[in-house]
Amino acid sequence: VPPPQEKGSTFLQLGSSTEQQLQVIFEVLEEYDWTAFAVVTTLLPGYEDFVDYVEVLTDSSFIGWEHRGVVTLNLTDDPEGARARRQLREVSAQIRLLYCSRDEAEAVFRAARDAGLAGPGYVWFVVGTNLGGGERLPEH
Asked: Which keywords does the record carry (predicted)?
C-alpha cells in the first residue's frame, strides 16, 4: 500500500536566525556595558548581510556603540593560519562578533589562540546558522 499523498506541508525552523542571534548578543553587550567591539567573518555565504545587519543595529541604537572594524578571513588561501593571526592581531577590541561555520570556527579559534587572543580578557560571540550539533566538541 503506497503512503498517502501529502496535500501540504509545514516547515518549522527551530534554529534561530542570524538576526535573532545578533539581537540577543547586542542585548548582552548592552547589559554588560561592552560597547566597543569588532566583527570577524569568514567568507561563509551571508557574511556581507551579517556585517550590514550589525551596522543597522548599531546605527539605529541610542547606545554609543564603538564599532572597531571588520576583519574578513579567507581561510582557504591561508591553510597555516599566518594571515589570520596577523589580521586578528590588528583588531583592538576585546569583544569580537564572529560569523562563520562550525568547521571554520575551529580554524579561527586556533589562529586566535596562537595569536594570544583567546584567553582571559577576550570575549567571542559566535554567530552562524550551522554551529550546533556534532558529536564532538571543538578542540579550541
From this structure: Membrane, Transmembrane, Transmembrane helix
